[in-house]
Design brief:
Layout (H helix, E strand, L loop, with lengths): L1 H19 L7 H4 L2 H11 L3 E4 L5 E5 L5 E6 L3
Antiparallel strand pairs: 1-2, 2-3
């Protein structure tokens, strides 16, 4: 139970950071694309990016228990 609370707090903190982050001239909908989210995560934590044959990509954060943080189909 303790670990679940810690994981929730960490995830809640990350959600708060992602939800309130804004760069000058960057609208909220622009931030929600794959590249912007990946760049933000790279600036703040270690990430692993997996790519597929047809342009699919997934960003995983090992420090957040290997969670998938964002993905795209390459379309």
């Amino acid at each position: 139970m303790y670990l679940h609370r810690m994981a929730f707090r960490g995830l809640a903190a990350l959600a708060a950071i992602l939800g309130t982050w804004a760069a000058p001239g960057l609208a909220a909908d622009e931030f929600e694309n794959y590249g912007n989210v990946r760049d933000f995560l790279v600036a703040h934590t270690r990430v692993v990016e997996l790519t597929g044959e047809h342009g699919e990509r997934v960003v995983i954060c090992p420090e957040y228990q290997g969670r998938v943080m964002t993905s795209t189909t390459g379309d």
